[in-house]
Amino acid sequence: MIKGIANVVFKVSDISRSCDFFEKKLGLKIAYREANWAEVDLDAVHLGLMQAEPAGGARNPFLSLLVDDINATVATLKERGVEFSGDIKDEPFGKLITVNDPDGNQFDLFEAAE
């Protein structure tokens, strides 16, 4: 039976550059790393980074990372040079914004409504 998510994987063109992005710019921990594979620790699940061509892929897979204060988080990440698509959207279920990684993968930062 299905128990949950094993991992979510982004294809990337340069494993070192991608690890630097997730670790240094986003402040996340690289839990595991080898030549063409790395895992970013996202608490209950790991994000796999697999060096392969073609890299990128915009919204496939779809990933949303939970944040406690989206405004403060976005401000900090912009200072670190992280690029976003658009502005923070305020929806009935919460606030979100799309992040662009170096290979064109996109994922959202999400703050749940109270």
- The CATH level-2 architecture is identified as Roll
Helical segment count: 2
Main beta sheet, described?
A: 4 strands, mixed
Question: How widely separated are the two ends?
Answer: 33 Å
Shape: globular
Give structural notes.
The protein has 114 residues and is α/β, with parallel strands linked by helices. The chain has helices spanning 15-25, 70-79; strands at residues 7-12, 29-34, 37-41, 46-51, 64-66, 83-91, 94-100, 106-112. It has one domain: 2,3-Dihydroxybiphenyl 1,2-Dioxygenase, domain 1 (Roll). It is built from 2 helices and 8 strands. The strands form 2 sheets. The protein has a 4-stranded mixed sheet, with helices on one face. It has a 4-stranded mixed sheet with strand order 5-8-7-6, covered by helices on one side. The radius of gyration is 14 Å and the shape is globular. The relative contact order is 0.21.
SSE blueprint:
Layout: E1 7-12, H1 15-25, E2 29-34, E3 37-41, E4 46-51, E5 64-66, H2 70-79, E6 83-91, E7 94-100, E8 106-112
In short:
This protein is an alpha/beta fold.
